C-alpha cells in the first residue's frame, strides 16, 4: 500500500506544529541558569570562537535561529535586516545558523542575497539551541540586559517588533520561562546508551521531502539510506539497533507517518529536547553511530558501500 506522507501535502501543518511546540516552550520551566551565555559558538566566516557573554556588553540581545534550507527563514530575512538597521545601536542582533546539514557557501549566498549586516554565528554543535528551547526555525529569542530570556517566537511580526522596541527603549521586561534539559533529564535520556553496544541511526522525519527543493542531493541521500535501513539492520544482528529522529518540526504523528512510509523494523524515537543530537554531536543526517558503553566507536555518514558497511559493523 502506498503511504501518503501527510506533511508533503501542506506545509501549513508544519507551521502549526511549530506554533504548538513553541506554545509549550513558552510555559515550560526554566531554571534561571544563564550558563547559555558561555556556550561556545563560531563566527562566520572567520570561524572564531565567541559566546553571548563575551559580546553582550550592556545591550539586550536579539537572536534569530535559522538555516539556509529553511523556507520561512528566507521569508523573514528582509524584516530581520530592517530590524538590524533600525536597532543596531541599541540591541546586539545576531543571526545564529543551526548548522544542521549546512553548506558554508550557502550561508554566504543568503548573506549576499538579503544584504545581511548583522553578525552571523554558527551553533556549531547545537548546544545553544538546546539551551534556549529551539523546536524549529525560524526562532527568535530576545534577552534583556540582565541575561534573561524575555520573549521567544517563530513569527516575524508586529508582536516581535513591539518587544524589540521596548528593549531598545530601556525596558528590561520580565524573564520568560523557556525549556532546557536539566542535568537530571540529560542523564536520564543518555542512560540507555551508556552500557552495552548500540547502533544509533540519526535522521529526521523531514529530511527526505523538506530538503527536496533546497537540497535535492541531501534529500535523495536521506531517501536512499532510509529505504536501505531495514536490509542493513537484518544483516548486522550482533548489536542493538535504535533510530533517533531530530526533534525539530516533529511530533508523534510525523514519526508514525515516517515509520509507516519506510516500514521501519527497528525502534525509533524522537530526540527529546535535542539531547542525543547535541551529546553525540550530530550535525549531518543521516548518521549512524556505533556506541559502546557510551563512547562512539565509529561514526558513519557514507552509506554508499553497504556490503563493506555490514562487515565494518559486524566486527566485535
Automatic annotation (TrEMBL):
Keyword set includes Repeat: no
Stretches assigned to the Thioredoxin domain: 29-172
Keywords: Membrane, Transmembrane, Transmembrane helix
InterPro entries, per database record: Redoxin, Thioredoxin-like_sf, Thioredoxin_domain, Thioredoxin_ResA/DsbE_sf
This protein's record includes keyword Membrane: yes
Gene3D superfamilies: Glutaredoxin
Transmembrane segments: 12-32
A GO molecular-function descriptor: oxidoreductase activity
SUPFAM superfamilies from the UniProt entry: Thioredoxin-like (SSF52833)
Family annotation (PANTHER family): PROTEIN DIPZ, THIOL:DISULFIDE INTERCHANGE PROTEIN DSBE
Protein name: Redoxin domain protein
Organism, as annotated: Shewanella baltica (strain OS155 / ATCC BAA-1091)
Source organism phylogeny: Bacteria, Pseudomonadati, Pseudomonadota, Gammaproteobacteria, Alteromonadales
Amino acid at each position: 500500500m502506498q503511504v501518503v506522507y501527510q506533511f508533503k501535502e501542506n506545509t501549513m501543518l508544519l507551521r502549526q506544529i511549530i506554533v504548538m511546540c513553541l506554545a509549550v516552550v513558552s510555559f515550560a520551566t526554566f531554571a534561571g541558569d544563564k550558563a547559555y551565555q558561555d556556550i561556545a559558538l563560531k563566527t562566520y566566516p572567520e570561524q572564531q570562537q565567541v559566546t553571548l557573554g563575551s559580546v553582550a556588553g550592556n545591550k539586550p540581545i536579539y537572536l534569530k535561529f535559522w538555516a539556509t534550507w529553511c523556507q520561512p527563514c528566507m521569508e523573514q530575512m528582509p524584516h530581520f535586516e530592517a530590524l538590524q538597521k533600525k536597532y543596531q545601536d541599541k540591541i546586539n542582533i545576531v543571526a545564529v545558523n543551526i548548522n544542521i546539514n549546512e553548506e558554508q557557501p550557502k550561508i554566504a549566498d543568503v548573506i549576499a542575497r538579503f544584504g545581511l549586516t548583522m553578525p552571523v554565528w554558527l551553533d556549531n554543535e547545537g548546544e545553544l539551541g538546546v539551551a534556549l528551547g529551539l523546536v524549529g526555525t525560524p526562532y527568535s529569542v530576545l534577552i534583556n540586559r540582565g541575561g534573561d530570556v524575555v520573549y521567544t517566537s517563530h513569527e516575524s511580526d508586529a508582536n516581535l517588533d513591539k518587544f524589540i522596541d521596548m528593549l531598545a527603549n530601556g525596558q528590561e521586561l520580565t524573564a520568560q520561562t523557556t525549556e532546557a534539559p536539566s542535568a537530571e533529564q540529560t542523564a536520564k535520556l543518555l542512560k540507555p546508551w551508556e552500557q552495552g553496544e548500540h547502533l544509533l541511526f540519526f535522521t529526521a522525519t523531514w529530511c527526505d521531502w523538506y530538503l527536496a527543493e533546497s537540497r535535492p542531493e541531501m534529500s535523495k541521500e536521506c531517501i536512499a539510506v532510509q529505504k536501505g535501513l531495514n536490509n542493513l539492520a537484518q544483516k548486522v544482528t550482533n548489536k542493538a539497533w535504535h533510530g533517533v529522529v531530530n526533534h525539530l518540526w516533529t511530533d508523534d504523528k510525523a514519526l508514525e507517518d515516517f515509520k509507516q512510509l519506510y516500514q521501519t523494523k527497528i525502534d525509533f524515537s524522537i530526540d527529546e529536547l535535542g539531547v542525543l543530537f547535541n551529546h553525540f554531536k550530530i550535525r549531518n543526517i543521516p548518521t549512524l553511530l556505533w556506541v559502546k558503553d557510551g563512547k562512539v566507536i565509529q561514526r558513519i555518514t557514507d552509506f554508499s558501500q553497504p556490503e563493506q558497511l555490514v562487515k565494518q559493523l559486524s566486527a566485535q
